């Protein structure tokens, strides 16, 4: 699982913390999960860099 959030200082109230909590649950169960914080981006501007990151992750795991 890959979680992507905007900068915790710019993001919607508690959005980063919600994702951090969601990250912790499967991680505690031994699942593979990664949380990315896109510094400098907020909820409305994180789409483009997140899409680039998703594409990169897909290439690494041969999901294309």
Describe what this molecule looks like in 3D.
The protein is built from two helices and two strands; from the N terminus they run E-H-E-H. By secondary structure, the protein is α+β, with helices and mostly antiparallel strands. It has one domain. The protein is flat. It starts with a strand and ends with a helix.
The biggest beta sheet is recorded as: 2 strands, parallel
How many strands appear in the DSSP assignment?
A: 2
The parts where pLDDT drops under 50 for at least 5 residues are: none
Compute the gyration radius: what is it? 12 Å
- The mean pLDDT is 92
Q: Note the total helix count.
A: 2
Roughly how much helix do the residues carry, as a percent range? 40-55%
SSE string: EHEH
Distance between the termini: 16 Å
Count structural domains: 1
Beta fraction of the residues?
15-25%
Please list the strands of the largest sheet in the order they lie side by side.
1-2
Shape: flat
What is the SS-derived class? alpha+beta
Give me some keywords for this one.
two-stranded parallel ribbon; 64 residues; single chain; 2 strands; alpha+beta
Task: Give a short summary of the structure.
The protein is an alpha+beta fold and 64 residues long. The protein has helices at residues 15-28, 47-60; strands at residues 2-6, 34-38. The protein has one domain.
Describe how the helices and strands are arranged.
Layout: E1 2-6, H1 15-28, E2 34-38, H2 47-60
Parallel strand pairs: 1-2
